[in-house]
Amino acid sequence: MYLKRLEVRGFKSFASATRFDLEPGVTAIVGPNGSGKSNVVDALTWVMGEQGARALRGGKMEDVIFAGTSSRPALGRAQVSLTIDNSDEVLPIEYTEVTISRTLFRSGASEYAINGTACRLLDIQELLSDTGMGRQMHVIVGQGQLDRILQATPEDRRSFIEEAAGVLKFRRRKEKTERKLAALEANLLRLSDLTKEVS
Length: 199
Ligand code: ATP
Fold this sequence. Notes:
The structure is a single chain. This protein is of the alpha+beta class. Helices cover 34% and strands 19% of the residues. The chain is built from five helices and six strands. It has a six-stranded antiparallel beta sheet with strand order 2-1-3-4-5-6. The chain is elongated, with a radius of gyration of 21 Å.
């Protein structure tokens, strides 16, 4: 899957609108310590639906919004857009180019969009879930993450493989359906008790 473009504005150290055009091949981001290289990866993780502040190296989600510097006031919102080339139809959507966007306001409100149309976080997660870039993505290997994978419990390792294979989405749906079935069975039992009582 070819990630074509990443646009950030008000996200972490990127106060101004910044656009990364990712040409085919290998892209390397270089810079001194603390200059914001990892923030670019955080922006990628975030726009693809990351919900954990810790995974984004912050204490709370609001920490992704530009907090201001001595020369620049803090901003009220963080916005990231990622454009994916879909000419190989790897995403189940009828567009050759797909832009997913995420905005977070200081009030805590969030907005998500696919190709400019507002959507739910779940829509973005489902769109990406068969690509290995979903909720628990394993295509971004962060510092120290290899150790975590190597030391994972058999259950966690199974869940990594299931996510990569696109099975996890169906497991979640199955679990949801099983919960509904159990509730239905309880209702049926109650109905049968009531019927016995009145007959
Ligand atoms: P290293 O090479 O040491 O890993 P790096 O280039 O990857 O560094 P990052 O960790 O991406 O750097 O960026 C850290 C910088 O981002 C710090 O200067 C930090 O102050 C800044 N930063 C993080 N969050 C925010 C925020 N919400 N507002 C403003 N600046 C922020």
